[in-house]
Amino acid sequence: MALNMTTGRAADSSQLRPSTVLASHRHAVLRLARRHRAGNVRVVGSIARRQDAAGSDVDLLVSFAHDASVFDQAELIEDLQDLLGVHVDVISDGGLNAAHESVLLDARPL
Question: What is the DSSP secondary structure assignment for residue 46, as one 8-state letter?
Answer without folding.
Answer: T
